[in-house]
Design a protein that fits this description.
Elements lengths: L2 E6 L7 E2 H7 L4 H9 L3 E3 L2 E2 L5 E2 L4 E5 L16 E4 L3 E6 L16 H8 L6 E3 L7 E7 L2 H12 L6 E7 L5 E5 L2 E4 L2 E4 L7 E9 L3 E8 L6 H8 L21 E8 L3 E4 L4 H11 L1
Parallel strand pairs: 10-17
Antiparallel strand pairs: 1-6, 2-5, 3-4, 3-6, 7-8, 8-10, 9-10, 11-16, 11-17, 12-15, 13-14, 15-16, 17-18
């Protein structure tokens, strides 16, 4: 059996349930239910239950289980920024989906990562729109994915974006507007979920501005909706505004700083670099 996680319980440990021990080491409830179903949890070489008591000196072993997926692996170009035993950081080009859809199962970033990993399905942390370029984190196992999600929710790491918006916007600010669905379309809604976006202007002219954007929450189309709501829709925006400067929303997942791993940066996609030079140089 291939190892997902192992632990020798220290001598000063206070006895407690195995499930509680694993939760403290980053296992989500969903993952624990699946591992229980697959009988992948062991204590001292014997199959164990989550309610079993763990004592000092016990050896805990959790085996890897095959990913539950119908993802089709594909071989293609993958702009790999970083890789270790637990995860990948890749630079997604504009124009492709992050995950497959029921009517578009091939040609996505997930397909390409699965092909790179020899058929192993990745666990993608977050989702970029088809038109958005930049950093995507892909965990190689569900435990790493669970830990990354928890760290993200706790604010231990926050993705930063570069956004080209219409009009002149200087200084720094925050957009705190709830997002939900209204008349079948995503947008600002008093009945929606909390959404916070921070921005800092890096360059501006009367016609356009380049912003560094940090999303505190991760709602679908959050940056696009929030920027449009304050009167500065993205260049190339066609859903929450209208601009034909470029054929896609001018948004790029720029950098992220992961705990214990450091900072990763994705250079601007060629079309956005050309736009930057044209507007601000």
């Amino acid at each position: 059996m291939e190892e997902l996680f192992s632990l020798i319980i220290p001598e000063d440990f206070s006895p407690q349930a195995l499930g509680k021990v694993l939760r403290r080491h980053g296992f989500s409830r969903t993952l624990l239910r699946r591992l229980k179903r697959e009988t992948a949890i062991y204590k001292n070489g014997e199959q164990a239950r989550l309610v079993d008591l763990v004592l000092p000196g016990d050896f805990i072993f959790v085996a890897k289980v095959p990913a539950e997926t119908n993802l089709i692996p594909e071989i293609g170009d993958l702009d790999l920024i970083y890789e270790d035993k637990q995860l990948l950081v890749v630079n997604k080009p504009p124009g492709i989906l992050t995950h497959p859809l029921s009517y578009e199962r091939r040609g996505t970033l997930a397909n390409l990562i699965a092909g790179y990993l020899g058929g192993q399905a990745p666990h993608l942390i977050g989702r970029l729109d088809r038109g958005t370029s930049g950093l995507v984190i892909a965990a190689k196992d569900p435990l790493t994915a669970s830990k990354l999600f928890k760290e993200r929710q706790a604010g231990l790491w926050l993705p930063e974006y570069l956004a080209f918006v219409k009009g002149e916007l200087s200084g720094e600010g925050e957009v705190d507007l709830p997002l939900g669905r209204k008349d079948g379309k995503r947008g600002v809604s008093d009945l929606g979920k909390s959404a916070r976006t921070l921005y800092k202007s890096l360059a501006h002219t009367p016609e356009a501005s380049l912003l560094q954007v940090t999303i505190i929450t991760g709602r679908t189309n959050q940056i696009r909706i929030h920027m449009a709501a304050i009167g500065h829709p993205l260049l190339g925006e066609r859903l929450y505004g209208w601009d034909d400067t470029i054929p896609r929303p001018a948004l790029h997942a720029w950098q992220v700083k992961l705990p214990q791993l450091g900072q990763f940066v994705a250079p601007l996609a060629p079309d956005l670099e050309e736009l930057r030079v044209k507007l601000f140089c």
